[in-house]
Amino acid sequence: MIPYQFKPEDAEAWARSIGIKTRHRGDQLELMYCPYCKSTTDKWKFGMNLKNGQFECKRASCGIKGNMITLSRDFNFSLGREVDTYYRTTDYSRQQYKKFRDAHRSIEVRPAAVEYLAGRGISEAVTVKYEITTRKDDDKVLVFPFKDEAGNLTHVKYRKTDFQKGIDQNKEWSESGCKPILFGMNHCIVDADEGKLIITEGQIDSLSVAEAGFVNAVSVPNGCNGFTWVPHCYDFVSQFQKIIVMGDCENGKITLAEEIAKRWPKKTYICRIEDYKGCKDANELLQKHGQQAVRNVIQNAQAPDDRHIKPMKDVKRVDIMQLQSFTTGLPTLDKVLDGGFRFGQLAVLTGRRGEGKSTIASMFGINALEQGHRCFFYSGELTDFYFRNWMDCQITGKKEPTQSDYDQLDNYYGDKAYIYDSDILQKGDEMETLPETIENAIIRKDCRFIMVDNLMTAITDDLQNDLYRHQSQFVGNLAALAKLYNVFILLICHPRKSNGDLQNDDVSGSSNITDRADIVMTFGKSWAYDEEKKKWVVQEGERKIRVTKNRLTGKLTAKDDLKLVYDHKSRRLAERTEDFFNMRFSWNTDVYGFETVDDMDEIPF
What we know:
Blueprint: H1 8-18, E1 22-25, E2 28-31, E3 46-49, E4 55-57, E5 65-66, H2 68-74, H3 81-87, H4 111-118, H5 124-129, E6 133-134, E7 141-147, E8 153-160, E9 172-174, E10 196-200, H6 203-211, E11 217-219, H7 230-238, E12 242-246, E13 249-250, E14 253-254, H8 257-263, E15 268-270, H9 282-289, H10 291-299, E16 325-326, H11 331-336, E17 341-342, E18 346-350, H12 357-370, E19 374-379, H13 384-396, H14 403-413, E20 417-419, H15 424-427, H16 434-445, E21 447-453, H17 455-458, H18 467-485, E22 488-493, H19 512-516, E23 519-530, E24 535-550, E25 562-567, E26 572-574, H20 579-582
Parallel strand pairs: 10-11, 10-12, 12-15, 18-22, 18-23, 19-20, 19-21, 21-22
Antiparallel strand pairs: 1-2, 2-3, 3-4, 4-5, 6-7, 7-8, 8-9, 13-14, 16-17, 23-24, 24-25, 25-26
Helix pairs in contact: 6-9, 9-10, 12-13, 16-18
C-alpha cells in the first residue's frame, strides 16, 4: 500500500490555506512569494509541479525544495488522518541541526578558491584565514565554512563561480539542515576594531571588510530577508559596543539595517548611502575604490535619525489577507478572523474569574507552538509548575501523564516554549519590567506568541495614585511590541461586572485597553436573562467565545456566538465533543535530533 499519492487538488487546497496569491503556468502552480523566505521583491519564484508535487523556491538565497509531505509538515496542513499519522507530518515544531565529524579541524584551501577571490580583490592571506575552499568534485563551486565561536563547523554555504543566468538553477545555496549562524564569527575579538562588529549581507562582502583591515567582519547566512540566525547569535552580537550595518545598497536603502536596528536599537549604526560611491556592496567598493573607501564607509556610519518620520512613498503595499498568521484550533473562530490570529496584533481576552480564560489562552499557545512558533507565557496567578501541568494535560489529552510522557514533553518543549521566571524575586536579581522581559524573549529567543495572564498582576508599579495611566501605558507598550517585532500578544483582562453578556466596555480598567487592542474577545460560561426570575442565569454545560472587536476586517462573531464544549479530563476546549478525539499534537514522537557520532554527517567538501 502506498500511504500517499500526490493530487493537484491537495496543492491547491494548501495554497488557499496559507492565503498567498497563486497563478498557473503550464503544469506549475506558482505563488506570488515563497512561504519560507517570504521575499516580496522576487515575485513568482516559488513553484510546484502539479504532476509530481515537487516544489522549489528559485531565489538563490533560499532554494528550499520538497514535496507535498514537506508542506503538510511545515504548515500544519492535513492530508488526512492516515497520511498524517504515517508521515508524522505534525512533527515540525522541533528544530534539528546537522553536525559534522571533525567539525573543529582546519579546512584545506584549494588553489581555485584563492584564484577566484584574488579576482574579486581578496588576498590569499584573507582567503586562507577564513578557510575558503572549493568542492572536491567541482572547483567552480566556492565553499564558505561557517564556524561558531568555538571554531566548530556549523553551517556551509556554496557559490557557483561560473553561474549562467537562465541555465544554472542557483547561484548560491546552503547545505541543508545546518544551524544558521554568522559567517566569520570565529575570528572576531570583542576588544578589536574599537568594539565594532561589521555585518554585511554577503560572504565576499565580509571578506572585503576583512581585507580593509577589520577583524570583526561577519555576514548573514541566508540573505537580507532571513533572520533565523538571530536567536543563535544574539548574545555574541550583543558583546560589541557598536554594530555597523554595511548591507547592500539597493533601492535607496541599506539592506539588513531596519531589522538589525530593531533588535539592537542602541548599538546599531548604519552606513551612509553616499559613501558607497554608487557601488552596490563592500566588494564592488573595494574593487573600484580600494581599501580606504571601505574603511571610510564604516567610519562614517551613523545612528538612525528620524526613525519615526517616513515618506509616504516608502510605505509598503501589503495585502492584509496575506499577512502571516497561525490557526487557533477552533475552525469557526479562524473563519471569523479570516485565517486565525495574525502576527503584529494585540488581542485582549476577557471573561469572569474561574470560567476558563487561562484555559483557552493556553490552548491558543499550544496551537502556535504546534505550528512551529516559539512561545512565551506569563502567568501572574499560577506557579510555573502548575501552569506547565495544565499545558501537559492539554497537549497529551491525559489527566495524569506518565513519566515517559513527561520525558517526551521535555523534548517537545525544547527551545520553543518559555515561561516567566517568578523565582527571580527569591534569587535577588535586578528586576526588569515585564515589557522588557517580553522584548528580550522576542529578540533573544525569537518568541512570536506571547501570553500575558493577566493585566492586574502584570503591572508592578504603585497603582494607588494613577491606576488607569499605568494600565494604558502597559497596554500601549504591548501593542508597540506586537507591531515592532511582528509578534502576536494575547492579554487577559478581568471584566467589571459579574453576570450578563460582556462587551468591550465591560473590560475592567482604562478604556484605552480595548482602544489599543486589534482584537477583543470575551469568553466564559453561557448566560441568559431569566424574565421570570428577573436576573441573569448560567446555562449549564456551555462555554462561548465572542469576538467584539476585529480591527483588521471588522468581522465579528454571529449573534449566537461560538459555542464550545469543555473536557475536564484533558482540560481541552473544542467546538464539538468528537473533536477531542481528533485533537492530536506532535509531542509523542521518537525524533530526538543528532545525538551520536553515527548520526553526524561527513564534511561535504
